[in-house]
Design goal:
This is Metallophosphoesterase. The protein is of the alpha/beta class. The chain has 15 helices and 15 strands. The strands form three sheets. A seven-stranded mixed beta sheet has the order 6-7-8-9-10-12-11. A six-stranded mixed beta sheet has the order 3-2-1-13-14-15. Helix 3 runs parallel beside helix 4 and helix 11 packs across helix 12.
């Protein structure tokens, strides 16, 4: 009898504990759901949301860097990107955002160097003060981010493999967008959310493995048939609800340079552009090329694409996107971290003159590319010509310069004089394209009234 009473009391006690535990859990769930609903409503009711656009920041944590021959050799292959100071520059960026308080930050892919899980974790940690301040962190992956066989760290003088980012890791790390989404795509990391009078589509355009990979990242991008169907359904819903759609993706929908199409322009861009035209999408923002460039579709001409310059390369690009009820305003800024660096960092000449540091990296890369090209044309180029071609490379990726028409013609004439065959127009035409794209205002400022 005593044993029976003891068992009954034990069950009753466990039941009471379970009740309170379940009740507590229910309260937590209700609180979370209410908080998310309030955040969604706050976004929806905004008169003028303002987002900062970051692309191709290729974050590489300080703990993965060491002064070794292996790291320096790796750094030399970075194609003008800064690998050494990404943590310092992101920390400075966070300080700027805390002061200026945008609605949110939108990362359009290649958030990590080569999909290092520890890099994602550290980046999320550095961004946490923004979330605590009510600034949203929205992101989509780039071709370097998910199951990338190039993921490496440096330890004891060696380059070694490291844990890769999975799709689930990415969703957990950048949870704001998925929490507050109006809809998510079951077949990719794509989602949409409403902000004021607009519907933002953050689209996963990448091709990656479904498990740990030993292969290099795939440069090409495409949307699956399922994702295209999801996109069309959500665009139709946006139109029905009177929301103006804006697309964000890593790959380009338009060709921003004739030499940067294969592997850069989305494989099935024509299918997406058909939806763009059908549902009157006024704007897309992409990355991947590291090129700061604004391009208007020729026919029909009411669609623009902004290819964002890289945050980890020359220009250190930040896009400012302001969404007024009937007007979209875009301004590009070259971020100067200097006001946000402490005395220890300012003692480092690379950081104290960071804009010059990343510009020199691009200049040297441009000169090296020119040197190889000139060698193939049997051109004996002097130092001045090499410098000018290197500068043209810098101008092009930054989205322009202040060269006058006379200065451009003088530079073309100097190259023509160096050609062994004066009628060889292919190299001259390529150089002219670089120089003709130096209209700074056209690639850094845009106003659309959809």
């Amino acid at each position: 009898m005593f044993r029976k009473r003891f068992l009954m009391l034990s069950l009753l006690f466990c039941g009471v504990i379970s009740f309170f535990w379940l009740t507590d859990q229910t309260f937590i769930q209700i609180d979370v759901k209410q908080e998310e609903a309030q955040e969604k409503e706050r976004l929806l009711q905004m008169d003028e949301p303002h987002f900062w656009i970051i692309s191709d920041n290729h974050f590489f944590p300080d703990t993965f860097i060491e002064e070794s021959a292996a790291f320096r050799a790796f750094e030399a292959t970075a194609l003008g990107n800064d690998l050494r100071y990404t943590e310092t520059i992101l920390t400075a960026f966070v300080q700027k955002a805390l002061v200026e308080k945008p609605t949110g930050i939108i990362f359009t892919g290649d958030v990590t160097l080569n999909g290092e899980k520890a890099g994602l974790d550290r980046m999320v940690e550095l961004l946490q003060p923004l979330q605590e301040a009510g600034i949203l962190i929205l992101a989509i992956p780039g071709n370097h981010d998910i199951y990338n066989g190039w993921a490496r760290e440096f330890k004891n003088g060696d380059k070694i493999t490291t844990h890769q980012i999975s799709p689930q890791d990415f969703q957990r790390g950048f949870s704001d967008g998925y929490r507050l989404s109006q809809a998510t795509d079951k077949h990719s990391l794509s989602y949409s959310l409403d902000a004021g009078a607009y519907r933002l589509f953050l689209l996963d355009s990448n091709i990656y493995a479904d498990r740990f990979s030993k292969k290099e990242p795939v440069s090409h991008g495409r949307f699956s048939e399922e994702t295209l169907a999801w996109l069309e359904a959500r665009l139709a819903d946006a139109k029905e609800k009177g929301k103006t759609p804006i697309l964000f993706l890593h790959h380009n929908l338009l060709a921003h340079h004739e030499q940067m199409t294969d592997g850069f322009v989305l494989n099935n861009a024509s299918d997406v552009l058909s939806l763009v035209n059908q549902y009157e999408v006024p704007l897309a923002l992409s990355g991947h090329t590291h090129l700061q460039n604004i391009l208007q579709q020729v026919d029909p001409s009411n669609f623009y694409e902004i290819s964002s310059g890289s945050f980890s390369a020359v220009g250190t690009s930040i896009g400012h996107l302001t969404l007024q009820e009937n007007t979209i305003i875009y301004e590009n800024e070259s971020f100067d971290p200097l006001p946000y660096l402490d005395s220890q960092h300012l003692a480092n000449p690379d950081l104290k003159n960071y804009s010059a540091y990343v510009r020199l990296k691009a200049q040297e890369l441009g000169e090296e590319m020119a040197r190889e090209l000139f060698r193939s044309y049997a051109i004996d180029a002097d130092t001045q010509l090499m410098k000018e071609v290197g500068e043209a490379y810098v101008f092009y990726f930054m989205g322009g310069s202040q060269l006058t028409p006379l200065q451009k013609e003088a530079r073309l004439a100097r190259l023509q004089e160096s050609l062994p065959r004066k009628d060889d127009s292919s190299l001259l035409e390529s150089y002219r394209q670089l120089l003709d794209a130096v209209n700074w205002e056209a690639h850094h400022h845009l106003v659309i009234q959809p």
